[in-house]
Amino acid sequence: MMYQELRERVCKLNRMLPDENLVVWTGGNVSAIVREAGHVVIKPSGVLFEDLTPESMVVIDMEGNVVDGDLKPSVDSSIHLYLYQKRPDLGGICHTHSPYATSFALLGESIPAALSPLAHLTGRDIPCTRYAQAGYVDTGEAILEADKDGYAVLVQRHGVFSYGKSPEFSVKIATFLEESARTVHYAMMRGKVTTLPFDELKRCFDYYKNYYGQ
Ligand SMILES: [Zn+2]
Q: What is the domain extent for residue 164?
């Protein structure tokens, strides 16, 4: 099979989504791109997360044709492909319907970068897109309209798309975003939540990029 190591990574990341309470049943997906080959490794459609194996991941080309694998790819494949084509910086994409973040998406609201953990990762508010047809490129277009060079958006009345240099980073963003959304939600019930000042957002973002980790 092609891309055994990447299949293992993408499978593991998909299986983390229910563990982090970001998805239910079969909803949600993670993918990774192999830029030099023009191939994307993505979750198969309609398979329970607990049943996912590295071998069940599907390799597709940039037109969505299955290159390697026995199953149909995620119904959101066209959205992933569109984002990879328009954003050459992306190495991985994650999609969830995580409930606290999606409650902001339902109201058409952005999630303010009010907490430093999220500010470190994204350096900005998480915007909400216009309404778009789920499962179609329309969703990809709406995502780029709302966010040209960030790491996550809320898709109105749908859920979260997060993305970055690697599939691991995309899942990390999705997880921290849901934590922030939950905390901001609780805080909003008790008072006014404000976003961090622009200069401080930028400082947090630069600090994390340059100093965090091994
Ligand atoms: Zn969805």
A: 4-211
CA separation for the pair 85, 88 (Å, rounded): 6
Give the chain's mean pLDDT.
Answer: 96
Number of domains in the chain: 1
Cα of 188 from ligand 1 centre, angstroms: 26
Distance between Cα 137 and ligand 1 center (Å):
13
Distance (angstroms) between ligand 1 centre and the Cα of 76 equals: 7
Cβ neighbours around 51 below 10 Å, total:
10
Distance, first Cα to last Cα, the chain: 33
Residue 214 Cα to ligand 1 middle (Å): 34
Tell me what the mean pLDDT of segment 141-164 comes to. Answer: 98
Handedness of CA 15, 149, 204, 97 (dihedral sign): negative
Q: Read off the CATH number of the domain in which 42 is found.
A: 3.40.225.10
Each residue's pLDDT tens digit, 100-148 = 999 999 999 999 999 998 999 999 999 999 999 999 999 999 999 999 9
pLDDT digits (tens, 9 = 90+) for 54-94: 999 999 999 999 999 999 999 999 999 999 999 999 999 99
pLDDT for residue 76: 97
